[in-house]
Amino acid sequence: MMKMKTAITKLLSACTAxxxxxxxxxxxxxxxxxxxxxxxxxxxxxxxxxxxxxYVITDCIAxxxxxxPEMSNGLVISEIGDSAFINCTGITEMTIxxxxxxxxxxxxxxxxxxxxxxxxxxxxxxxxxxxxCCSSLTSVTVPDSVTxxxxxxxxxxxxLTEIDLPDTITSxxxxxxxxCTSLRNIELPDQLTNIGRMAFGxxxxxxxxxxxxxxxxxxENNVLMNKDKNEIYASTSALAGDxxxxxxxxxxxxxxxxxxxxxEYVHIPSTVTTIxxxxxxxxxxxxxxxxxxxxxxxxxEGLTNIGEGAFRGTSVETLSLPTTLKAVGIxxxxxxxxxxxxxxxxxxxxxxxxxxxxxxxxxxxxxxxSIKQIGEHAFGYDIGADGDYSKMNGFKMSVFSASAGAKYAxxxxxxxxxxDNLIKRTAFIxxxxxxxxxxxxxxxxxxxxxxxxxxxxxxxxxxxxxEKEEEDNYKSII
Length: 478
Description:
This protein is of the alpha/beta class. It is built from 5 helices and 36 strands. It has a 9-stranded mixed β-sheet with strand order 18-19-20-22-24-26-28-30-32, covered by helices on one side. Strands 1, 2, 3, 4, 5, 6 and 8 form a 7-stranded mixed β-sheet that branches. It is elongated and about 150 Å long.
């Protein structure tokens, strides 16, 4: 919002008279000077004079307005500035003239009453956050001149049912259509080569991706992938039940399956090395206390990284993580309230903050010696009555002495046992039992041999009898 300097109120009476005459001869228009830049208002908007002698709208004053004029005070309006209409909730429709070539970042952010908008034909970019949280917006036709959709451009436009994207678009930014929960179909532009992270995240009504003319991406079995089929970007709400990710996929992108909360089982092949942030999480459901249906996860050796919130709020009950895994991200399994058992293999090096926070059914965890870093509230905490972190009752840890796990348990006052002491004790017991068994076996063997062999005295008597018999036979022969 443009603020007038207090010095303006002290203008000379001659200047006041001149402004009064100007106002009588033209629409209500006041000019203010600030350095080399001119600021004006016509009662509806604030304007700023650009170097090319055109105007940019910097702010909207009117409570209700439905169109932007092509010109003001004899000069062309060529631009809508950053945040110019931010939170103008009274606007229900907007026609933007073709003279406008640029619409700034967050220009219509939070215009919750805006249901229809007509974009100018010479617009080249829909900037970051242009229509974020325009919750009444139902349909948009993007002109052929546009080549880029910015980050968060239509984020949380949850009544948007139709979006017509021209084939000229080459890039769709991060979170561009995130939580547009009424969209049913998206036709990817022919020239599209880049899809930002979470661009199509949590589209709970999306039924299909049309990739017929797009050579860079393909959609098979309700899964949107790149043309080489080694990166998964998104999926549709129709995906449910068992999911077998095909061999060859290396990277499951952020929010890739966030639109498919009805998946119950997933097999992840050995080719996958990274599961990115929120890959199987749906925040809309989680924030309402609902879990996704995912119960069983079949990990393969080869996976090295699980991203932030990747499996947050799933229904998984047991986890056996592969030996190749190096890092578990922040909140990776947060709010998995059905999780009862976790096997972390030797080789894991990092456990992020809140990684297993509020896993209320997980009462015990054994941490490998290889772990070097554990974030705050990663284990043994749930949500307290005040909504803050609270230590879980009855939670125990098995850790190695002088390890990151031992340090975490001590600093958080969590009950723990030393794994290496258990190993030594178990090894001693095993060795002792082994020796006892060996002695017993040796004794049994000796006993069996003693039963089968004649006594020494019997052997001596038998030898004497044989010698006597041989001597008698010799005498008889002589």
